[in-house]
Structure formats: structure tokens, C-alpha cells
Write a structure and sequence with these properties.
The protein is an alpha+beta fold. The chain is about 15% helix and about 25% strand.
């Protein structure tokens, strides 16, 4: 596989070099394009592991008596630089949970909004009070487990224990811009006197798919061992109009793997076998805790947006393994039919078919955050124009004096691929006024006070692929 990858990378660079001499080659546009990442490849690579991932909640809770929703108390976050992620306290076994969970999760929630509802109430109780016996500790590098075949670009870290078995994470150690497998936990193993077993289905939910994408040669397959502390609710609602799909991993960022991208966390996972640090560890993000999920933490990772005056936000779960699992928003404010204008006009139907997704995020589609926020909302620059399917008021720029809207328009237009690829990739609006007249950009306020920016996907960046 590595030989094939190297051949494909070489062919990619040779083709790119040959295009540079073509008369129609636009070096400036190509340079902008290269700044994005290979979303197509990431999605293809991770589709099976994404579906298999499902380190998420469990259907067995349907047998329990109905429980009241867990309501999270309001709190004020204290952001801290996301330079490292330390595993949280070990998850200790506990008795069977009661029908009414005793644990609550800290978050930025509106106290009137349940953090989780339905079956997820029992899932959260098990997550906070595990019954499956596992504990977690700081990762420690160990030898290749007994019976397992040694493999290039892979190390093993002991991360926990269950009964007499050590829990060991198999971690890839690629460290390349083009190699999205880099520093990924590809499997969990249990090692004891009887041998080495690969825990194929970490989630306790019966209908979750399993992590069978990477087979560890020499390890027996174990589909019966599950971990409450790695079984997450399908969704969490920290505040009104703000729902995060904790049970749906996001393939658009670092592959969206089930057990976590170690390259997103520092510490033991970020050191290559030769002792040097991984170049893919990010140290520019501000980490804010949204909710405690047992030994895991739901976090927001913020960076200044590429558009001045905006903030890019990624959502993730920091696991007790010390890794970070990418998740994404599930708020009804996005998608087809997400906004209804007060005057009844449908502005989301377009002739070329590009805008079929309805409401999208105005950031870069390949590598941008899960959401774009208005960093310093000026209410005088916006006017009420409609309502979102999440029940929030929707505002559009009041007029052409809205400089944030102008910067977003220029960002979407200038980053589009243009006619070099195909006429459909030419940005549809020549002027800022056209952009405004079609209600391309809008904003709404979440229950925690943040102003979220949305865009008609027709007016979003016209991209061909992420390279």
C-alpha cells in the first residue's frame, strides 16, 4: 500500500509540474488551491472506518425504564491554549445505573435545555459511571504485543487496563501532509496471559458498526468486549439552537476516525520513533470545554478565521486515551429548508444545481471549521429577515456598509476555482450588491450568545477538489 501511495504522490507532482508550463495555467489560483487539503481522499479513505467507527452510544439501554433528561447547568468557559491533551481521570467501574441518572455534564448550556434526551440519557449515565471494568492512564510505549507481527510505521502504547488485561493502542506513525493516516489510533488491543485480542467493537451499542478497518495480524478478533467509557450519546445540545452530533464522526477533518487522531493531541502520541515531534500537532487553537462526558470531554477548538472578524470552530471529543475524535454540528440551521424568509421568497433554488445543499458554512469547504462565528457582532449592521428551522431569528446584512459581509463575499469569490477547470466553478456573483440582493449571507444567535454565520451554498466557494 505504501508503494502505491508513493507512486501516486509522484505522479501527482509530475502532472502538477507539467501543467505549470501550459499557457492557460494560473499560478496564483493554483497556489490558493494547494492551500486546501484532499477532502476527497480523506472521505474515501475513512468511509469504512467512519462507519465502522461508531465509538458511540448503546442500544441496550432501551431495556431500561424511561429516564428524565439531563439538564446541564450554565457556566462560563475559561479557554486555554490547546497545546496538549492529557487523559482525564480513570473511569472506575460502578454499579448498574439507576433509571434517573445522577450525573450531569458541565457546559455552556441554557439551563432550560436538556443536554441529552431519550435513549442518550442512559448512555450518558453509563459513560459517567462505567460498568464494563476498564480504567485508563497516561499512554506508555510498550513492545509489540505477544503474537502480533511487527509493522513499519506503527507503535504500541499501553493506555489502560481491564481485569488482568492491559489495554494497548496500536498507533500509526506516519507524519506527512499527504498521509492522512498519520498518528492515528487504528485499533485497541487487550493483552493478558491468554494472548492478544483486538477489540473490534468498543461501543456497547448493539447496532453500532465495528472498528474492523485495520486488522492487527496475530491478534485474535474479539467482538464481545465493549467499553461504556467509549460509548457516546448520539447528540449533545449545549444550548438552544446548538446541537453537536457526538455520535456522528466528521470525515472532512483528519479522517474522522473512531478511536481518535493522535496527531491532534500532544504528549506521547506526538513523538515519532526517532524522538522528534510530529509536525501535524496543532498549537494554535484555543480549547474550551463544552461538556464532561465521563472520562471524555466535548470541546470547541477555536482559531482566528481566515476572514478578518470571524472565528473558526472545530468540535471534538478528547478521549480518555489522550486522543481527539472529530465530531460536528447537527443543528437544524444548516441544510435544505433551514431558513424561511419573512416575505416567503425562496432564494435557495438556483438553475445550475450547485446550491442543492441549502444553508452551508461560509468557511473553506475542505479544511475550514465546523462553524464560522462572528467574532464581534454589530447588531446595527444586520436586519431581521426570517426564521431558521431551529426556531431562531435570521438576520441579513442591513446594507453594503457591512464590512464583514463584504470580506466574506471577497473570500468566497477569490478562492473559487474559476473557468480554468469548468464554467460551473466560476463564482456566480460579480458584485457585492448581487451577493446582498440574493440574501446569500445571514446570521443567527445560539442559546449561548454566539452569532453563527451561514451562507447559501450556491454563493459558497466553488471548488473542484481539495489538493
Amino acid at each position: 500500500m505504501s508503494e502505491l501511495r508513493d507512486i501516486l504522490h509522484q505522479r501527482h507532482h509530475e502532472m502538477a509540474a507539467s501543467l505549470r508550463d501550459a499557457p492557460e495555467f494560473d499560478e496564483a489560483a493554483a497556489t490558493r488551491a494547494v492551500r486546501t487539503h484532499r477532502r476527497g481522499r480523506v472521505v474515501v479513505m475513512s468511509s469504512s472506518s467512519l462507519a465502522a467507527a461508531a465509538v458511540i452510544a448503546s442500544g441496550t439501554w432501551l431495556l431500561l425504564a424511561p429516564a428524565d433528561p439531563v439538564v446541564a447547568p450554565a457556566w462560563t468557559p475559561s479557554p486555554s491554549p490547546s497545546v496538549s491533551v492529557s487523559p482525564t481521570s480513570p473511569a472506575s467501574p460502578a454499579p448498574e445505573p439507576s433509571a434517573s441518572p445522577s450525573g450531569t455534564a458541565e457546559s455552556e448550556a441554557d439551563p432550560s435545555v436538556p443536554l441529552v434526551t431519550g435513549d442518550d440519557v442512559a448512555v450518558l449515565e453509563r459513560l459517567m459511571n462505567p460498568t464494563t471494568g476498564e480504567t485508563w492512564h497516561e499512554p506508555v510505549e510498550v513492545d509489540v504485543p505477544a503474537g502480533v507481527e511487527a509493522t513499519d510505521h506503527r507503535i504500541y502504547l499501553e493506555v489502560g487496563a481491564r481485569a488482568d488485561a492491559a489495554i494497548v493502542a496500536a498507533v500509526t506513525t506516519y507524519d506527512s501532509f499527504y498521509t492522512t493516516e498519520g498518528f492515528q489510533v487504528v485499533a485497541l488491543l487487550e493483552v493478558d496471559g491468554s494472548g492478544t485480542r483486538q477489540i473490534v467493537c468498543p461501543s456497547t451499542r448493539a447496532d453500532d458498526m465495528c472498528v474492523g478497518d485495520t486488522e492487527i495480524a496475530g491478534a485474535a478478533e474479539d467482538r464481545e468486549t465493549h467499553y461504556d467509557s467509549l460509548t457516546y450519546p448520539r447528540s449533545v445540545t449545549p444550548a438552544a439552537a446548538w446541537t453537536i452530533a457526538t455520535g456522528t464522526l466528521d470525515p472532512s477533518t483528519h479522517g474522522g476516525t473512531a478511536l481518535g487522531w493522535a496527531s491532534l493531541a500532544a504528549g506521547a502520541y506526538a513523538v515519532l520513533p526517532d524522538g522528534t515531534a510530529s509536525t501535524s500537532v496543532r498549537t494554535d487553537q484555543t480549547r474550551t470545554e463544552i461538556a464532561e462526558l465521563g472520562g471524555s470531554t466535548l470541546v470547541a477548538l477555536e482559531t482566528p478565521g481566515e476572514v478578518e472578524g470571524t472565528v473558526e470552530v472545530h468540535y471534538a471529543i478528547d478521549t480518555p486515551l489522550g486522543t481527539r475524535v472529530q465530531v460536528g454540528p447537527a443543528t437544524a440551521g444548516y441544510g435544505a429548508g433551514a431558513v424561511t424568509w419573512t416575505d416567503g421568497v425562496d432564494t435557495f433554488a438556483h438553475p445550475d444545481g450547485w446550491g442543492v445543499d441549502g444553508v452551508a458554512r461560509p468557511n473553506e469547504p475542505c479544511w475550514g471549521g465546523h462553524e464560522m462565528l462572528d467574532a464581534a457582532h454589530d447588531a446595527s449592521r444586520w436586519t431581521l429577515a426570517g426564521e431558521s428551522s431551529a426556531g431562531t431569528d435570521v438576520y441579513v446584512p442591513a446594507d453594503s456598509s457591512n464590512e464583514l459581509a463584504r470580506r466574506i463575499f471577497e473570500f468566497e469569490r477569490d478562492r473559487s476555482y474559476g473557468e480554468l477547470v469548468d464554467p460551473i466553478y466560476v463564482y456566480p456573483y460579480e458584485t457585492f450588491q448581487e451577493f446582498l440582493d440574493t440574501r446569500s449571507l445571514f446570521t443567527w444567535q445560539r442559546g449561548d450568545g454566539a452569532w453563527v454565520l451561514g451562507i447559501d451554498s450556491f454563493a459558497g466557494m466553488r471548488y473542484y477538489e481539495c489538493v
